[in-house]
Amino acid sequence: MRILALETSTSWCSVAVGDGRDWHERAVDAGNAHSTLLLPMIRCALADAGWPLASLDAIAFGAGPGSFTGLRIGCGVTQGLALGADLPVVPVGTLAALALADGGAHVVACLDARMREVYVAAYARDGEAVREVTAPAVLVPDAVAAPVGGGWRGAGNGFLAYPELARRLRLDAVDDTARPTAQSVGRLAVARVAAGDTVRAAAALPFYVRHRVALTTAERTAGAVL
What we know:
Blueprint: E1 3-7, E2 12-18, E3 23-29, H1 34-49, E4 58-64, H2 68-85, E5 89-93, H3 94-102, E6 106-112, E7 118-126, E8 129-139, E9 153-155, H4 158-161, H5 163-169, E10 173-175, H6 182-194, H7 217-221
Parallel strand pairs: 1-4, 4-5, 6-9, 9-10
Antiparallel strand pairs: 1-2, 2-3, 6-7, 7-8
Helix pairs in contact: 1-2, 3-6
């Protein structure tokens, strides 16, 4: 099985090509340069693997939640490549990919959503899959509920932005540098491709969670960002 995976939902831009066992990955903290970097990184990753685009079985992408601009870029590139090569697509949840990348058995995945909010969800790991315990949501930090039971880890820059959140949730450990990666997106996509759980290019859409795409004048003046 050959999969191309993209992850652009944070400031990081990453691309991975793999067969479920071995992965060729390229990643860079792109800031706002995803649109410039993504296609050259895809070409390089495919060249690393020695695979032409047409030889792939599917394309997977980090569908969100995350940066509105990053998600649109990742989704748009995925749609264009998949349509041109007639390939199926696997949208993968960003927080699920973050939980898998962290490697813990029970993970609260949390990303800074700006506007004094976080994207958060909880997952239990089962081999190369993760089971959703708490669905992705966008919340103010004080509204995030502690997961039931013990043995929970925290992962993601939401804990860097709001360090008191980890203490309040009584987490055993936190990695506030953890991030969703293209490889973790690809790893989650493998079983879904094998099961035929894919969509056509036109149906591959971002999962925003937050549906606001613009700020009021007062919010911009106050320095808020999406």
